[in-house]
Amino acid sequence: xxxxxxxxxxxxxxxxxxxxxxxxxxxxxxxxxxxxxxxxxxxxxxxxxxxxxxxxxxxxxxxxxxxxxxxxxxxxxxxxxxxxxxxxxxxxxxxxxxxxxxxxxxxxxxxxxxxxxxxxxxxxxxxxxxxxxxxxxxxxxxxxxxxxxxxxxxxxxxxxxxxxxxxxxxxxxxxxxxxxxxxxxxxxxxxxxxxxxxxxxxxxxxxxxxxxxxxxxxxxxxxxxxxxxxxxxxxxxxxxxxxxxxxxxxxxxxxxxxxxxxxxxxxxxxxxxxxxxxxxxxxxxxxxxxxxxxxxxxxxxxxxxxxxxxxxxxxxxxxx
Length: 320
Ligand code: ADP
Ligand code: MG
What we know:
Residues 206-320 form the DNA mismatch repair protein S5 domain. This protein is of the alpha+beta class.
């Protein structure tokens, strides 16, 4: 039961669940990912055009440590996929009713498996015509049905708030994967809340997500030393929240506040104090009354940045 507790806490919000599912689609090299969420029903559906799942793997999916991404200790050092532990779907199979429908290019049939409360209810070929091209559909119903307290917590904190978290998570995945078309739909009213079209640069996806006024006059960042590389873009015009600050390591968004504060400081020291920078005010506004560093303090602006650090996976602990 201790293990159960540990595993259930691994996914404790709808946003985390969506991230795990979308990361699986990205690991499966999907170029189109469509996510539907109905927060009040604890329902999530994700449709991708990735590599699909073989019938053999389909039988194992949802078992603890069932992963197709990492088999040996040697693999562990070099995995470049988001997943390698085989825990997300096993956890979801326990805390929801999980349905997986998948078409693998080497098999004629589409396969389906259903798990609920850790039990496999069904597994085999399906006559459903829902999936003809290779790819996978994953449907989560009754998420956290075994955890009424968690559900209560989510509903007390507001479904809208959690939907906002889902939106931010999808945006941050879309930003680092410009080549993928992402759609996030609020299934309770069928409205699209995130849409990105395939692009070639992170800036172009940034523009699609947040509009061209925020995406204009961005400066680029680039540094390379040995096998470590940093690239991205920033704007010292700033934004009134930290909402537009993104720091990734090997395409994984880092959520650690200290790092964001540190990057803020670096930007502050290197530029805010020295240069006059533009404020994101409407054109024609009089900037001259704002003086250098005092304005950062009084206006509480945070630099906008997107920074991606690429480095060998062997130099840090992936399990943290
Ligand atoms: P992990 O990602 O750590 O391998 P998961 O529990 O997230 O573990 O997924 C288990 C396995 O299910 C994956 O290793 C992969 O083989 C398969 N899988 C899950 N989602 C997809 C998907 N969308 N497309 C193809 N395979 C998938
Ligand atoms: Mg995974």
